[in-house]
Every structure is written in structure tokens, then in C-alpha cells.
Design a protein that fits this description.
By secondary structure, this protein is an alpha/beta fold. The strands form four sheets. The protein has a six-stranded parallel sheet, with helices on both faces. The longest helix has 23 residues. The chain is globular and about 80 Å long. Bound molecules: adenosine-5'-diphosphate and ligand TPW.
Length: 579
């Protein structure tokens, strides 16, 4: 008896902690306060306890949407967005968003529960058996697994660093079921946690790289700056604007860089895009890759003779990834560093003076711009019946102008392309869309994350097909009572609604139920549904949604013949040779 007593006393005094608690503590210690996920074995208690500990836990109807939410939360906040899923099927549902985050350079951590390692590795048929770590690895910037509670701190620290340092990306963190229930001494557990110091260290560009770039830019007769979503991510808004304005160089914003400077800025060359790309002689890319969205920096878009020919431009590329330069065409002046540091280095150098680009170049651009803007204004002023993309978007454009703080989500094909060119953005990081892959399905997940992270109202302009990929999350939007106004531009199908099955048996693959009442989906969960057939009705409903802040879905019925196949990327769509 005498020998046992002290042991009992010491057990009673020892405070224990467990895997669940350590995961929560490690996230909170690093300022992560929100989880986007979907509960089930083995993470249900993690969601409950995280909520009890004051974290925001947003529970979705499908992991893909939770994952997209986490990815865009990462883009908006520069902190990794957390997506939490169950094992195999939940993990696989979340995987799309992990790949999306990596592709788009958004910091995100997909945390999935997994089954028992010993059984999985011997393939003995465990509940939801799957080697998740191996499957996630090629789609993630980094992938880790934690087996012991005392390693949770290190696991989360490594995941955070991998997600946000250098070029941001998606990270996978595998947490087997057994880990959560492991108990360890609370003091030992506390000591094992790591508060990550300087998770995204500045990367200062080399002075000679800065000089090389500015020398090239100075010598240009027709310079152009292209701002990409990396520039938006960097949150160096004032310096980027100063660089553009001090140099007087015309600029083009990529889709998610719209609003970095207001789209109405006199130096924006967006309305003369097809003129400036082939004409420019020196192009400075800031946080934009020369991928398909920029026609790989060559070919006819850039004034090249043939499909793959270089147009003769010299490129300066400002990017945090040293491997990005020369990916498609020669980059004469790579500047490797974080955009904040690079742009501030440029500003330091040009303080001594900078002559504006030649007037012929600026005048030629302005001439095209004025013509194209006038032509667009004429189209937008029309009021056809039925309503089409242009007349609907003219209303949306006014509403966004009156509400520049609102977040703006956009997906679809025509619904994306027309919106991008018609609706001006006025502030940085307001427009979030289909990104590098042109992915459908980001819509409602982005709406949730945008509302939660920015506390601003959200407007989503959705193709009817695009909306369908995440439509069930209107319940999530209603459940959390988020100020989201979804506009479905409804033309009865993918691209448009007029295709027919030549055999007469089935609906064509691109068409949907005619006159579908999407607004009733929102009503089903207590939100506001509006059926709108004119721009006036659409405008009124949007104004009311922004005023009331109630979850609203406006079914904006547009001409089903409106829209072209694949929108503006028809050229990428292989079509069978017609007989
Ligand atoms: P877009 O689609 O708008 O053209 P991309 O996604 O192609 O933009 O390019 C974004 C680029 O920005 C990537 O090459 C990425 O490495 C880079 N990037 C992201 N964040 C930063 C940063 N903080 N500093 C420098 N470059 C960055
Ligand atoms: C995950 C292919 C590109 S655009 C689109 C699809 C299915 C829908 C277009 O119709 P919508 O818009 O939204 O009604 P509109 O205005 O043209 O009528 N699956 C995924 N991503 C993509 N990009 C596709 C399919 C696609």
C-alpha cells in the first residue's frame, strides 16, 4: 500500500492533454481561428472542441466547398486556410481544393483524419482505408503525417511554414484517428507546441537584378506592366500603385488583380488589351505567370507570326519563385523576391527621376480605349427582351460601383468573361474567381469565406451551370446568416440552353431543365429568393439584398441563345471535324 499511494497522488496531480486539444492549441497559438470542414469519424470531436474553444468552425455540405473556402481565405488573409475532413471519401472530396490551392499559389492546409496505419499499410481492409499521404503528395506543396501527440506542434508548424513561405501553396496534414485520443502530460504537451516566427520571411531582391530590370524598362518605347494575383496576394497595394503612377506605364490587371488600382484608372490598358499585348516592347510581370491565361507569352496574341512564335517582347518577371522565369519564353530580367520588397526596391531606385513613356504609345492606347469603351457603353445601354448578359451586367456594374467594399465572386464561362470585362472593381482583393484552372465550383465556398474573413457583403455572379457545382451550400450561407447575394445568370444550360440531342431521345449534354427556379433553393432554407426577368428587377433585388444583408438568390433569367461555347476560350475547345 505504502508504495502505491505516492503514484496515485502523482497521477491525480498530473494534468493530461490529448491529441484533439494539442491540434487546437497549436492552431490557436499561430493565430488560426477558423476551420472550414465537415465532421465525421475521426474528427467530429475536433470540430466540437475547436468551437468550444472559441474557434470559428464552419461546417459545409460537401468538403470540396469547404476546401475552396479555405483556399480563398488563405489568399485573402495570407494565413493558411484550414480545411478539415474525415478519412478516404472526405479526404478525396477535399483533394480538389488542395490541388487548386497549390495551382493558384494560395496558402491552405488540408487536415484529414485517417485510418489505422498498421491496418492501412497491410491493406487489411480498415474503415475508410486509404494511403492518403501518398495520394496527396503530388498535389500539394508539402505533405506530412503526425503519429505521436508530442509531434503535433512540429507538424502544424511545418505545415504553416510550407503553406505561406516562398510561393504559397496547399499543404496536406494527415492525422490518424489514434493520434487524437493519445494522452500526454499537459505541461509536456504545451512545451511541444511551436509559435512559428516569421512564417513568410521577406525575400529581398538582389540589387543587380533590380538595376537590370529598371535599365530594361527605362529603355522601352512601349512599356507595359501586368499585375497578377500574386501582386494582389502580396498586400503591397500602395507601393504597387505608386510604381505604376510614378513610372506612368500603362498596366493590365489579370482577373484577380482587378481593383489593385481602380479599373477606371487612366493608366489601365484593359480596354485596349488586344492592342497592347502585341505592341508592347518591354513587359514587366508582377506576380503573374506566362501561362495559358497570357497565351504563354507568345503566338498571335503577342504579335508572333505563328501560333508558337515569339512576338519580340522583352520580359521582366517579378516573382518569389526563382524557377518561374523562362517557363515559356525568355525572361531577360528576372527579379526574385517577395513583391512588397521588390516593388519598394524599384521605388527607391526611381526616386531619382523617371521619364514617362513616349506620348505616341500612351496616345495610341488611349485612342483604342476610348473607342472600345464607347462601343461597350452603347451595347450596355440597350435593353433587349429577354435580358442578355450585357443588360444584366450593366445593372451589376452600377451596383458594384455603388458598393465598392463588397466582395465579388464570379464563375461560369460567358458569365465569367462578360462580367470580368464589364464590371469594374475599385479596391484590391475584392474580385475572386475561377483562377488558374478556370474551375467551376468555387462559388458558394468562396462566398462563405469572403463573408467570414472580410465581414463585408458578398455579391456572386454565377452561370447557372457553375452555380450547380456548389449550390447546396446556400443552406450553409443561410445557416450562418451570411450577407451573400447570389445572382444566377440563367440561360438554361452550360454556355447556353439551346442544344438538342440529334436522335431526339434525351436532353442535349449541355442543357438543363427549362425555366429552373433556382431562387426557391434559397427560400427552402429561409433566405430570400427573387425571380428577375429585367435589369430593373435585378437591380432592385440586388439593392435590397445589400441593404437587408439577408442571404439572397436572384434567378436572373436571360436569353437562352445568349452565350458562346466555352466563352472567350473557344479556341482551346477541340471540335470534331464536320463532315
Ligand atoms: P495570374 O493568374 O493572376 O496571372 P498567377 O497565379 O499566374 O497570376 O501568378 C501568381 C504568381 O505570383 C506566382 O508565380 C507566384 O509565385 C507569385 N507570387 C505569389 N505571392 C507572391 C509574393 N508574395 N511575392 C512574389 N511573388 C508572389
Ligand atoms: C470542375 C467545364 C467550363 S465553363 C462551364 C463548364 C461546365 C459552365 C458554363 O456554363 P454556365 O455559364 O456556368 O452556365 P454560361 O454563362 O457560359 O452559361 N468542370 C469543372 N470545371 C470546368 N471548367 C468545367 C467542368 C466548364
Amino acid at each position: 500500500m505504502g508504495t502505491v499511494e505516492p503514484q496515485v497522488a502523482s497521477d491525480a496531480q498530473t494534468q493530461l492533454t490529448d491529441g484533439f486539444q494539442l491540434v487546437i492549441d497549436a492552431l490557436k497559438l499561430n493565430g488560426i481561428d477558423t476551420i472550414y470542414g465537415l465532421p465525421g469519424i475521426p474528427i467530429t470531436d475536433l470540430t466540437r472542441r475547436a468551437q468550444a474553444e472559441g474557434m470559428r468552425v464552419l461546417s459545409f455540405r460537401h468538403e470540396q466547398n469547404a476546401g475552396y473556402a479555405a483556399s480563398i481565405a488563405g489568399f485573402l488573409t495570407q494565413k493558411p486556410g484550414i480545411c478539415l475532413t474525415v478519412s478516404a471519401p472526405g479526404f478525396l472530396n477535399g483533394l480538389n481544393s488542395l490541388a487548386h490551392a497549390t495551382t493558384n499559389c494560395f496558402p491552405m492546409i488540408l487536415i484529414s483524419g485517417s485510418s489505422e496505419r498498421e491496418i492501412v499499410d497491410l491493406q487489411q481492409g480498415d474503415y475508410e482505408e486509404m494511403d492518403q499521404l501518398a495520394i496527396a503528395r503530388p498535389l500539394a506543396k508539402a505533405a506530412y503525417r503526425v503519429l505521436h501527440a508530442e509531434d503535433i506542434g512540429v507538424g502544424i508548424a511545418r505545415a504553416i511554414r510550407a503553406a505561406v513561405s516562398g510561393r504559397p501553396g496547399g499543404v496536406y496534414l494527415d492525422l490518424p484517428a489514434k493520434l487524437f485520443a493519445q494522452s500526454i502530460d499537459a505541461a509536456v504537451g504545451k512545451k511541444s507546441l511551436i509559435k512559428v516566427v516569421d512564417p513568410a520571411p521577406k525575400q529581398i531582391p538582389a540589387p543587380d537584378a533590380v538595376k537590370r530590370a529598371l535599365d530594361l524598362l527605362r529603355g522601352a518605347k512601349k512599356p507595359l506592366i501586368i499585375l497578377g494575383k500574386g501582386a494582389a496576394y502580396a498586400q503591397a497595394d500602395a507601393d504597387i500603385r505608386a510604381l505604376v503612377e510614378k513610372t506612368g506605364i500603362p498596366y493590365l490587371p489579370m482577373s484577380m488583380a482587378k481593383g489593385l488600382l481602380p479599373d477606371t484608372h487612366e493608366q489601365s490598358a484593359a480596354a485596349a488589351r488586344s492592342y497592347v499585348l502585341p505592341e508592347a516592347d518591354v513587359v514587366m510581370l508582377i506576380g503573374a505567370r506566362l501561362n495559358w491565361l497570357l497565351s504563354h507569352g507568345k503566338g498571335k496574341t503577342w504579335g508572333g507570326k505563328g501560333h508558337k512564335d515569339w512576338g519580340g517582347q522583352k520580359f521582366i518577371q517579378v516573382d518569389i519563385s526563382p524557377q518561374e522565369a523562362d517557363s515559356n519564353v525568355r525572361v531577360d530580367a528576372p527579379v526574385v523576391g517577395d513583391i512588397g520588397s521588390c516593388v519598394s526596391a524599384f521605388l527607391n531606385e526611381i526616386r531619382s527621376g523617371w521619364s514617362k513613356p513616349p506620348a505616341e504609345w500612351l496616345n495610341a492606347i488611349n485612342e483604342r480605349k476610348t473607342k472600345n469603351i464607347a462601343k461597350m457603353a452603347e451595347t450596355l445601354a440597350k435593353n433587349p427582351s429577354p435580358m442578355n448578359f450585357h443588360s444584366a451586367l450593366a445593372a451589376v456594374r452600377d451596383i458594384v460601383k455603388a458598393n465598392p467594399d463588397a466582395m465579388f465572386v464570379n464563375e461560369g464561362a460567358n458569365a465569367l468573361d462578360f462580367t470580368r470585362s464589364i464590371v469594374d472593381m475599385y479596391q484590391p482583393r475584392k474580385r475572386i474567381d475561377v483562377g488558374t484552372w478556370g474551375i467551376m465550383g468555387i462559388g458558394m465556398g468562396y462566398c462563405v469565406a469572403a463573408a467570414v474573413t472580410t465581414k463585408q457583403p458578398v455579391i456572386a455572379i454565377e452561370g447557372d451551370s457553375a452555380f450547380g457545382f456548389s449550390g447546396m451550400e446556400v443552406e450553409t450561407i443561410c445557416r450562418y446568416n451570411l450577407p451573400v447575394c447570389v445572382v444566377v445568370l440563367n440561360n438554361n444550360g452550360v454556355y447556353k440552353g439551346t442544344d438538342v440531342d440529334p436522335t431526339g431521345r434525351d436532353p442535349a449534354p449541355t442543357v438543363f431543365v427549362k425555366n429552373a427556379r433556382y431562387e426557391k433553393l434559397m427560400e427552402a432554407f429561409g433566405g430570400v429568393g427573387v425571380y428577375a426577368t429585367t435589369p430593373a428587377e435585378l437591380r432592385k433585388a440586388m439593392e435590397e439584398a445589400l441593404r437587408s444583408k439577408k442571404p439572397t438568390l436572384i434567378n436572373a433569367v436571360i436569353d437562352e441563345t445568349a452565350g458562346t461555347e466555352s466563352g472567350r476560350i473557344t479556341s482551346l475547345n477541340p471540335t470534331a471535324k464536320k463532315k
